[in-house]
Amino acid sequence: MARTRLERLQPVPPPAIDRDEEAGEHTRQRRPRRRGNPLARILTWAALGIATVLFTYPLLWLISASFKPRSDVFDNKLIPETFTFENYLTVWQEAPLALWLANTAIVTVLSAVLVTLSSAMVAWGFAYFRFRGRNALFGLVLATMMLPGAVTMIPTFLIWNGLGQVGTLTPLWAGNLFGSAFYIFLLRQFFLGLPRELFEAARVDGANNWHMFSRIALPLCKPALIVTLLFEFQAAWTDLMRPLIYLRDSSTFTVPRGLKALLDQFGFGGNWHWEIVVTASVITTVPMIILFFLGQKHFVKGIATTGNKG
Amino acid sequence: MTATPLRPATRAKQRLRPAQRRNRRRNLRSALLFISPWIIGFLVFTLWPVLYSGYLSLTDYDVINDPNYVGLDNFRQLLADPKISLSLWNTFIYTVFSVPVHIIVSLLLAMLLNRISGRASGFFRTVFYLPKMTPPVAIGILLLLLFNGQNGLVNTVLGWFGINGPAWTTDPAWIQPGLIIMSLWTLGASTIILLAALQNVPQELYDSARVDGANSWQTTWKITLPMISGSLFFLTIVNTIAAFQTFTEAYTAYFGSGNSTYSNDAALFYAIYLFQQGFEFLHMGYASAMAWVLFVIVLAVTVVQMVVGKRMVYYEGGQ
Fold first, then answer.
1. Measured at the alpha carbon of residue B301, what is the angle toward residues B299 and B307, in degrees to the nearest 5?
2. Which intervals of the chain are annotated as region Disordered (chain A) (predicted)?
3. Which domain holds residue A56?
4. Which residues of B touch A5 (CB under 8 A)?
5. What contacts B303, CB < 8 A, 6 or more positions away?
């Protein structure tokens, strides 16, 4: 398993993210647009159009429903008949939303920054230095990706329980101090793509190991660092399982955990206040959508790099 | 045997001058310094948990009292627990249906995208990837709303075609299909991976095939699919592993406090039952045993896929 993933992932040219525009130009040149017959073109665009509706409608409907009064939530209209902000006010009053957002912000920012820095350090250790057992050790890094989370979940909980950290936000981000196999792999690929002469020249000029890493290597692999930051930010923001395990009190909840609590209270709780649940869903989702539009290019490139053979 | 030359490493070692040896030691020290975060993390958050989980699987443990060694009792209990077979069956059905459909639909979308270029292509990539940004909790809630039996959007649309939609979220027979269909909403990442693979297929192959008189059906089967088989294989394995551990959407929609309205046996996935055993019932030993069973199953399925995949995947440059 480990080896396959390695084989799959290794031939990817690291600077793919770097040369974004260039690569786009490249594909366009190599693959002259097939004009094809008009019928095929019409069918292509029709299929893409239908797919677009299927992929966007649920999200648009959700956002629109959050502006509808309770009685209209299920009316399936994209433009609310009666437009109201009341749901947002109600959610704000019913739930410690500001607190949840603050908690989530702490967890996501710390998670993303820490995992990016620590993974970059480790990746640099594997990419630049040559020492005996390096490949075996790196194989071990990759092998850890294959272990189902369920196996380590309970002992990890017991560690944080022993440290008295259950009920706090610490377990949600502190593990990221130690890097993460997938990001280590991704960043190492980038570091390996940097010309070695650069670092030899720097060493002659008196740069030490830390300088070479922080002043030269890190700035050069900014696109990969951004991918890592974005991926981890998303992972930390949307996580539900760990907040379910570690958070007890509603004042420590993250937004997804709070959303689940709202669903239990207002959806299932016999009240059927779906407008509140819908509105809270929108509040949980919108930051991710903004994040996506800010880092769109990096998301798409990062994903394409992940599963593509060279 | 005696004629075998010394391995380069050994030879180099013999020739090392003291200064070089010191250099090498310093080099190793700096390397380990950079790698140390991972080493610490591995020991504390992977190696120890794996070993301890193995031990816990042989005990009764409720967090409050000390673990009580029970041998293989947990595993014997597993075999007799009807909810284990139920959750395994649910997980299996979900995986068997969602993974192939997920990949086929992604491939179709990627092929469509591959026919257009420029700004439009970027637009559609955005559109298809966007649902992947939706937090799984929100997807679970969307599932309850869209597939609502009385006034959900899905049944409304089916109604336009004269179809009387089922009670997706309350009828046990339709809970799984609903979950599987909803899971297709987030296939954008696979689409992008496959699109990238499609764009890497050399145009010359198509050109020469066309010269030889191949039609587009033939080029698809004989060129496109073999050339992207590596990515298809990667997605199959990754999606299978993920499907086996699926949790959040189903848990959000059908489990949690206050949910007495819905029949939820059909949505009881293995990961959900494991979570309940471990963190709701505090049967940590039993849950650890479950985790090991999951590990063995995932490993076995992956190995089978790899053996089959090895025959079917085309690797550029031999291999």
1. 100
2. 1-33
3. 46-83
4. 234, 237
5. A1
Handedness of CA B114, B120, B126, B127 (dihedral sign): negative
Look at residue B64 and give its three-state secondary structure. Answer: coil
Could you report the per-residue pLDDT of B212-228, keeping only the tens digit for each?
988 888 999 999 999 99
Q: Which sequence spans correspond to the domains of chain B? A: 25-72, 77-310
3-state secondary structure of B60: strand
* CB atoms A76 and B189 under 8 Å: no
Structure tokens at A303: 């994903």
* Spatial separation of the C-alpha atoms in residues A64 and A142, rounded to whole Å: 43
Under CATH, domain B77-310 is a member of which superfamily? Answer: MetI-like (1.10.3720.10)
DSSP state of B69: E
Comparing CA positions, the residue from A141, A151, A148, A234 lying closest to residue A181 is A141
Which of the residues B10, B24, B32, B35 would you substitute to probe the A interface, choosing the one with the greatest number of A C-beta atoms within 10 Å?
B35
Full-model pTM: 0.88
Q: What is the DSSP track for B210-230?
A: HHTT--HHHHIIIIIHHHTHH
Q: What are the start-end ranges of the E strands in chain A?
A: none
Backbone angles phi, psi at A45, to 5 degrees: -70, -35
Quote the minimal CA–CA distance from A151 to chain B in Å.
5
Complex ipTM: 0.88
User: Rounded to an integer, what distance in angstroms lies between the CA atom of residue B294 and that of residue B244?
Assistant: 8
Residue A22 has pLDDT above 60, yes or no: no
